[in-house]
Amino acid sequence: MSTTDKPMRFAMGGIIHETNTYAAEVAGQTPLTSFEQYYGDEIPGIFAGSNHQVGGYIEGAQKHGAGLIHTFLGQATPSGTIEANAYAHMKQAILAGIEQALPVDGVLLALHGAGVADGIEDIEGDLAAAVRALVGPHVPIAVAYDLHGNMTEQMQRAVDISLPCILYPHTDFYDRGVECVDLMVKMIKGEVKPATHVCTLPMLPYIVATNEGFVPARVNALCAQLEALPGVIDCSWFHGFPYADIASPCPAVICTTNGDPALAVRCAEQVAQWIWDHREDFRPQFPSPEEGVAHALAASAGPVVINEYADNPGGGTPGDGTYLLRALLDAAPAPDTVCFASINDAEVVRQAIAVGVGGTLRVSLGGKLGRFQGAPIEAEAYVKAITDGRFVNRPGSMFEGVRFDLGAMCRLVINGVDIIVTSRAEQIYDMEPFALHGIDAGRRKIIALKGANHFRAGFQGLVQQIITVDSVGLSTANIASFPRDHLRSTLWPLHEGVVGALYKAAS
Ligand SMILES: [Zn+2]
Predict the structure, then answer these.
(1) Which of 366, 483, 356, 384 minimizes the C-alpha distance to 422?
(2) 112 alpha-carbon distance from chain centroid
(3) Which intervals hold domain Microcystin LR degradation protein MlrC C-terminal (predicted)?
């Protein structure tokens, strides 16, 4: 432990991946080359000031006059199971960096919580345990997570301070990063002594936003109420990540108090009980793409956002699903009524580039990456625009100010519907991808997009209505439709009549 007379030094590293294990079956495992990989001193230049755990760590360290030794950060768009050697490489980069930095006063890890590598279904627990073994029992370890993590005992045992983000869309990564550092500093100074309790719930709901009107907003309100009690440091919850065939994917409530284990148990159990009692509110009821499109076309005013829940690249899907796009085309809307972003099809983008702007081509669009994606759209397409796929996310959106590079992109027009085609899968966060291709999306009746909830930050307030549609897909809200070879728990709503302990402590 440090004394207060010399500046503290923290080591920082991370691996961020939300693993949809079902995507591996159709799109393969995720190799190292799919990861953005940042080493040492290049990290602050990339992340300082951004809405990312590391942005918060940098700010927090600065605020407390602490030194931050950056080791390695690897992150990739959600996708299939991580290749074993890719995970091993990244883990080793972090461990070697920390070892070189020793002695340190604390370790800050930036993790997701739902990372699965080939042979290791809890990479966060595995990495945290290895870091713990390296630094010993007395150096605090703090982690800011994505709330879509599946909390495990291994994660909890190895880490002193675990803070999942609270908001979905995740507009508070930065804030949680800063909080992690604040708490770690207090811990080192002896001002707090974290006592943590985790309650996992025997349920596996689909993933739901925390915006007003959704049930997680009410869970958050209860957590905030308990957090106001004297002695409670943090009360929050992991929503769980259902698209992973692992032993126990489920939500978990985590409460951290200042040296009061009984209070931590009471608060965590109270929130877990509330979620359990309201589990029926987590049952999805979405229209089909056809129903959603008909409803949107009949709306008195636009724009209406229709989001395709079942093929959400933010949940690790290939992004080339055609269910919503087909429903839009089948509805034969008037020209300039509908714009859609985006469908992932690098081959079609290449064909469009070959034909050039102003040309027409016969396309077989999407539906190529596995049996969950629907059949390809066979059609005549007009090439309206081709771009480099580089843009900056707009103010107010979840990744405000963050640069994206989706590879070569094009705007095709098929039967009057404007379709943005990308060279890689990515969800849509705001109207910028449309603007990049000359579309004023705010003037369209229907803005159709792929995504579950993150888009809400960038669209809410700018549109009249949001209609979520669901279909077959690798991120369908119909969680019970996935095979579960590795599951070792009985979970609502996968199994009927889940009884016994409503929740169990992970500690
Ligand atoms: Zn998330």
Answers:
(1) 366
(2) 8
(3) 307-484
Rounded to whole angstroms, how far apart are CA atoms 339 and 313? Answer: 18
Cβ-count burial of 2 within 10 angstroms (0-12 exposed, 13-18 middle, 19+ buried)? middle
Please report, as a single letter, which amino acid is at residue 179. E
How would residue 496 be classed by pLDDT, with cut points 50, 70 and 90?
A: confident
> What is the 148 CA–ligand 1 centroid distance (Å)?
5
What's the CA-to-centroid distance between 431 and ligand 1, angstroms?
A: 21
Domain borders along the chain are 9-282, 289-477
Q: How many CB atoms lie within 10 A of CB 335?
A: 10
Q: 395: which DSSP letter?
A: T
Per-residue pLDDT band at 1 (split at 50, 70, 90):
very low
> If you measure from the C-alpha of residue 72 to the centroid of ligand 1, how many angstroms do you get, rounded to a whole number?
21
Q: What angle do CA 69, 57, 45 make, to 5 degrees?
A: 65
Residues whose beta carbons lie less than 5 angstroms from ion ligand 1: 146, 148
Residue the block writes with tokens 């070569």: 408
CA 112 to centroid of ligand 1, rounded, Å: 8
Sign of CA dihedral 217, 223, 227, 229: positive
Strands 194-200 and 252-258: antiparallel
Kind and range of the H or E element at 220?
Answer: helix 215-227
